[in-house]
Design goal:
By secondary structure, the protein is an alpha+beta fold. It is built from one helix and two strands, in the order βαβ.
């Protein structure tokens, strides 16, 4: 069985947490991260 290929779009703290979890299942991950995200909703 081959590893799944995953593409993730987004930004902020949530994306990094998601990517850390996905690393357990595959190393074939592409992430497109927005640089305009200021992380302002992390505390909500």
């Amino acid at each position: 069985m081959t590893e799944p290929r995953i593409v993730v779009l987004g930004g902020g703290t949530g994306l990094s947490v998601l990517l850390k979890g996905l690393k357990r299942y595959t190393s074939n991950i592409t992430a497109i991260v927005t640089v305009s995200d200021d992380g302002g909703s992390s505390g909500v």
